[in-house]
Amino acid sequence: MAPPERIVVLAGGVGASRFLQGLVRVTDPSAVTVVSNTGDDLDFLGLRVSPDIDIVIYALAGAVNPETGWGLAGDTFHVVEALQRYGYERWFNLGDRDLATALHRTRLLREGHPLHAVVADIARAWGVPCRILPMCDERVETRVATSEGELPFQEYMVRRAAEPRVLAIRFAGIEAARPAPGVLEAIAAADAILLAPSNPFVSIGPILAVPGIRDAIAGAAAVRAAVSPIIAGQAVKGPAAAMLAALGHEVSALGVARLYRGLVDVMVIDEADAHLSPAIEALGMRCAAVPTLMTDDAAKAALARATLEAARQARRP
Ligand code: GDP
Ligand code: CA
Known about the structure:
Radius of gyration: 19 Å
Bound molecules: guanosine-5'-diphosphate, calcium ion
Number of domains: 1
Structural class: alpha/beta
CATH class: Alpha Beta
Largest sheet: 7 strands, parallel
Strand content: 15-25%
Number of helices: 13
Number of strands: 14
Oligomer: single chain
Order of helices and strands: EHEEEHHHHEEEHEHEHHEEEHHEHEH
Strand order of the largest sheet: 5-2-1-9-10-13-14
CATH topology: Rossmann fold
């Protein structure tokens, strides 16, 4: 039997986790390495919270809240509610059982364990069948310059509900960051590198900005495929479309493809955007138009299968 295809997935939160739920059903999960965005991480009540990593772990463990796509199914919010008595504003929704993850992570970090070891421990405890790596061990913070001044990402996204106009995005601390142990090795050994249907600016962007990661992907022997998070000119959820517009890009799968020009061999777009294929292929990449709306388990698996198929066809000789 041929060895399993080694797959690296660059991942944000909700969009990526849905894609990964499909991927593990159509390929050998033990050959999948997820490189996770940590630019969204925040300190909340003195605890380190890694929203994107936790979403991916909970989703792959079958424990994520299916309605929201984040947090744990059936979790309660007694702690954040009880804190209001002491005057705390309840703006970040950290559930009670989710809080246990943050407590554990914070304790291990304070004991001096690097983030990648902490993430491996949490993923193992949840029985996640893939390897989950943070993009780096160092602290990197996505900051959004807006019409209301510069905001840490979660303040922009959650407290301000992504309402302020985006002027620029930067990743504080990125110059000092290094790819977490295992990231460059996984990229070099991969047969396929997949950019999940995640926000290109604040989910995939920070990962590619870690010094060394973009170049490693650009120079990798693996075939590289990206899935558009934009369908028919709109984000399925979240600020991706608003960010494309605000930062001067076309709000479409073509706009996303332009961001990934020179980096990917094939762009997977929604069938509703099939008319964009010639313009995307003119960028020097292939294009596959397939159903990309991940409404249920079957749709998630079908998108993962179609993405792998498009990647195989785009494999360079
Ligand atoms: P976040 O960190 O939780 O915001 O998650 P991601 O960055 O991984 O994913 C957010 C992106 O996922 C948004 O831009 C959505 O448009 C996209 N997305 C969510 N669900 C779907 C879907 O079913 N299909 C596609 N193509 N994109 C999706
Ligand atoms: Ca995120």
